[in-house]
Each structure stands twice: as structure tokens, then as C-alpha cells.
Amino acid sequence: MKQILYFTKKLHQHTGKILYLNLVGMILISLFEGIGLFLIIPLLALTGVVNLESSEGSTITFISKMFSNIPNEIGLPMILGIYVVLLTGQSYFQRKQLILNAKIQQSFLRHLREKTYISLMQSNWGFFLNKRKTDISNTMTTELARVGTTTNLFLQFIASLAFTCIQIGIAFWLSVKMTLFVLFFGLILIYLSRKFIKKASSLGGATTKLSQTYHAGIIDHFNGIKDIKSNTLEEPRIKWFRNLCMQMEENVNELVKLKTASQLRYKIASASLITVFIYASIQLFQAQPAQLLLIVLIFARLWPRFSGIQSTLETMGSMLPAFDSLLRLQEESKASKEIKENVTYNSTHKLFIKEEIECNGVFFRYSTDETSSYALEDIHVSIPAKKMTAVVGRSGAGKSTLIDLLMGLNQPERGQIIIDRTPLTDENLLPLRRSISYVSQDPFLFNTSIRENLTMVFPDASDEEIWEALEFSASAEFVRKFSKGLDTLIGDRGIRLSGGERQRLVLARAILRNPSILVLDEATSALDTENEKKIQEALEQLKGKMTIVVIAHRLSTIRNADQVIVLDQGKVVQSGGFNQLAKEKRSMFSNLLRNQLEVN
Ligand SMILES: Nc1ncnc2c1ncn2[C@@H]1O[C@H](COP(=O)(O)OP(=O)(O)OP(=O)(O)O)[C@@H](O)[C@H]1O
């Protein structure tokens, strides 16, 4: 119930007045239908099937008298005419209301979609480190669709409530005693059925979890399909998938069982009640045939409303966990927001570093758990402006972590990142980020043309500038070989290119942005020696123009670096020029060098 109230509040906040307009529409539709119900009275009188004169003083007599002075030849077409007008009016408003319902539903959905997406985009890197991306994608697709269904159900629910209230009003007018009787049992049954709504909600929670697992499984398996196929891991994957599908099937079957069980209760109660009802009407209240007919009519119309309300509440109960998971995602991402309310990513200026980026006594660990170890410990380094700094060390030494801290993606637990003597804070974070071009170990390319992949960082780039960047990254030659050149489509994550071609293309993109800081994290690891040499020469030309930070395992690629920082187990163990470090015997750097010479 708490969830439903919260959902109502959110929907009301978003839609405002339109929700009331919708309610008025629903009331009008119900009124048309209710008035239509009364037409049965003069119709019965006209046909003479039942005698209405005997119900002296009742509502029935009052209505039948309204038509009694009209001759039969006019009366019948008149009643039928009114009926057609009412039905037309009702259908007209019903159409309007359906359109309005769809508008409310779609606009609420769009609002939630946009709000969540923007909130996610503005979250810091730490948020994404702790969150499964497949869960995010599941919430943004499957769960959002369930929220859409909930909105529709909710609007139907309000319609149902409005309709029921009007029907109750009409029923009261016709017979107070009988209506109280139906109402009393209806409310008792709804009260007794609360446990069905609770159970539906818990099954809905399970649906969310299963859907997350399903989504994650599909994405993981098809991302890793090459590994699965080449290691013949198909069977265990199929077994896992079958098992999950079975659980999903069971979950839905359980929901259907639950819904049908509560409906069964209503049907049995309905049959018993109507029997008692008719018996009481005839034996105790001495109801006349016309009145009896109307009472049965009221019962037949009112009773399904109660079971309808119950059924909608159950379905909503099973859907609301989706709304919950969406709101949780919104709240978590909002709590991790990395920019201020009035700042936009594009409105900030670029930062031009004049002197250095400094790490001053930096400590960092991925877990907030006090007992976990630090990925970086007491780091003091300086990255001089417009020079090339290389960061080296064994795998897991903390190289990428250091780069992430320098880019402001992660924040130190202790110590500071200082840019030209100004500490890195929320204020200068975006200007810093805007001045960086970063090429990661696993560069990302979009499933579109080469041109679009390049111009997304600089939409106004001319063909000349694009080719210049391609020449820089030693990509021009292979791009020219494609018959469609820059318009060649490169497939999912650039699957139609080789690993080295992908890296070179991402490098071209980084250069096209004309950054003042270029960060390369193992960016040339997939290149052959010839192409790597070309890129080294190109980087050499950038020295003095931009600050370059390179992480490299292949030490031959950093021979020209102005400074080398050697990390080991999260600590800086050496720093200085390449040749100077190479001369330091029994050091980590000479170890790394020796190992590579042995391998080569
Ligand atoms: N997202 C993460 N959550 C928890 N621990 C992490 C995470 N990323 C890295 N680590 C840990 O932090 C340490 C440093 O990792 P980092 O990726 O910085 O090393 P690296 O020197 O760049 O290694 P490589 O050369 O293999 O890329 C490692 O012990 C690693 O296990």
C-alpha cells in the first residue's frame, strides 16, 4: 500500500492537473453508463414484461412515470434514441480518455526515462565501479516497461474506482438496503484479500531479480561468445539458462495461480451471495419483480467491480517492485552525482596546465571496508606540463588506478591531486576532464561509420582534420583501403577491425579532440613494431604541445619519455629518466627491463 501511495504521489507530481481531467472524463463515462441503466425501467414498462405500478413511491416508479405520459409509438423510439445518444457520448469520451491515458502514461514514462538516464550520466566513476552494468540496462529496459504497465493499470484502477463509486450511488438510489448488503460483503472480501496483494508484491520482487539475472546472463554470454565457443563452454551455459528459464516460468505460473485463487474466492462468494440476496429480496424485503430485476442488475454490475479492483491491486503489487528498483537506481545515482546542479558538461572551459599535475600523499582503495588494502599508498609524484611521463610496473601495481585519480574519476581517501597549485575539486573537475583525451586498454568504438566514430568528439571536424588525425595514428593507410573509406561501418564495438586497427582509430579520435593532456593506458599494446614505431615518432612531435601520460608494459615504447614513474604494489618505487633508471641495478625497473629482454 505504501508503494502504491508513493507511486500515486510521483505520478501526481508529474502529471498534475491532467490527472484530474482524466478523472472527470472517467466520471462522465460512468455517468453515461449509469444513466443507460435506468433506461431499462421505462423499457420494461413499455414491454409490459413486469408491472411497475405496484412499486408505489419507489425510484423505479418515479422513472417509469416520467415516460408514462408518452405514447408507446413515440416512447420506444425515444428510449432507444436516448440509448444511442448515451452510447455515442460514452464511446466518444472513452476514446478521449484512452488517448489521455496513453498521454499520461507515455509522458510519465519519458520523464522517468530521462531523469534516470541523466542521473546515471552525471554519476561519478565510483558508482559504475560498484554497479553491474547489466542491472542498469535491465532497469532501463525491462523494469521501465513494467513501470509503464503499472501506470496504465493505475489509471485503470482510478477509472474503476470512479466507476464503482458512481454505480454505488445509483445503486443506493434504487435500493439502499441491497446496496449496503453488496457493499458490506465487497469490502470484507477486499480486506480479507490483502494477503494476495502482499504475495503478489513478493512474487513481483522475484520477477525483478530473475529479470536482472536473465539480462546479465544474455549480455555476458554473448559478449563472451568467442571464449564460450573456443573453450566448448556451451553445455554449462545452456544448463544454466534452462534452469533460469524454468524459474521464470514458475514465477509467472505462481502469479497466475495467485490471481486465479483470489478470483475463485470472489466467484464462489458471488454465487453464494447472490443466492442469499435473491432469497432475502423475495422472502424478507418482498421485492417486486422489477425491483428484483434491477437488484440483480446492480449486483451483476457492482460485484465484478470489487473483484476487478482486487485483481488490479494484485497486478499492481506485482509490478511495483519494478518502480522500486527504478527509484533506487535514481537515488543511488543522484547520491553519486559528480557535478553541481547548475553546471553542464559542455558549459565549462578547458583547462590548460602550465606547470604540473601533482599527487600529494595520495592514498586510495576500492573498498570502503577499513580492513581492505590500498591500491595506492602515499603517492607523491609530479607530472610536468607538456612533457611525456611514463608509468610502468608489474600487472596490478596500480598504474590504471593512478591515471583514474589524475583524471578525477576516483577521489583519494587521503592526500590531494593538485593542478598548477590548485587542488582538484568539484570546481575544476570538469574543466580538467574537458582538456583530456583518454585512450584505454579496451577502447570503445560505436557500431557506426569510421567518420561518425571520429567526429563524435569534434562534430565540426573537416575531412582534412580527420585525415590528419588518421595519419598521426598510422590509420590512414588501412582506412584508404576500405572501398567506402571514412563511411565504412565497423560493426559492434568495431568488430570488423583488427585489434591494432581499433587501437589506432581510437588514438586518431583522441588526437582529433586536440587535448591539452593525452592519456594512453596501454593504448598501443596490440600494434606491431612497425606501427608502434610510427606512433612513437608521432608522439615525439607532440612533446612541447601537450602533456602526455603513457602506461606501457612494453618498455621499448617509452624510451623517449621525459620521466618514468615505477609503481609496485601501490607504491612509487622509482622515478626519473629512462636511462638513469635503467642504470639502477637490482631495481624494479632494471628487473622489468631484463625480463623483457629475456622474453624478446
Ligand atoms: N574496480 C576495482 N575494484 C576493486 N579492486 C580493483 C578494481 N580495479 C583494480 N583493482 C585492484 O587494484 C589494484 C591495482 O589495479 P590497477 O588496475 O590499477 O593495476 P595496473 O597496474 O593498471 O594493472 P594492469 O597492468 O594489469 O592493468 C589491483 O590489485 C586490482 O586488483
From TrEMBL:
Cellular localization per UniProt: Cell membrane
Domain ABC transmembrane type-1 residue range list: 23-318
The UniProt record lists the keyword Membrane: yes
Entry keyword Nucleus: no
Molecular functions (GO terms): ATP binding
Keywords: ATP-binding, Membrane, Nucleotide-binding, Transmembrane, Transmembrane helix
A Pfam family of this chain: ABC_membrane
Main location: membrane
Residues of the ABC transporter domain: 357-594
Annotated membrane topology: Multi-pass membrane protein
Transmembrane segments annotated in the record for this chain: 20-45, 74-93, 153-174, 180-197, 264-282
Listed SMART domains: AAA (SM00382)
Name of the protein this chain belongs to: ABC transporter ATP-binding protein
Organism: Metabacillus elymi
